[in-house]
Amino acid sequence: MTELYFALGCTSMCASLVTASYGYHGGMNYEQKKKWEKAVRYQQLGSIPLLFVGNKKNKHIPGALSAAGVSLFCLPLYYYAKTEDSKFNFAMPWGGVLMMASWLTLGFLA
């Protein structure tokens, strides 16, 4: 399972670079690009715990929180930035809380 979280973190970081490039070249207006850049930044920040949980006891807790948080925060924000449709924005606060919880649990497990 350790390798799974590390691979997920690396894949998420790589995907953030791909989406950053798409956002830069994707033909969005200034406001859309600002939202897109925020999603990229939070995806990168949310991916970091996945890289560190491998050597922690009870690693499944911060790993799962981080993966869920990135998904619930970043995916709706990418969608909103690209389409300006806010129907999935309700999930973003929950994703943010889960990302914060992943950092806290990672810290307590140190």
TrEMBL record:
Keywords: Membrane, Transmembrane, Transmembrane helix. The keyword Transmembrane applies. It is a multi-pass membrane protein. The keyword Membrane applies. It comes from the Eukaryota. The chain crosses the membrane at residues 6-25, 61-79, 91-109. It is found in: Membrane. GO terms for cellular component: membrane. This is Transmembrane protein. It comes from Blepharisma stoltei.
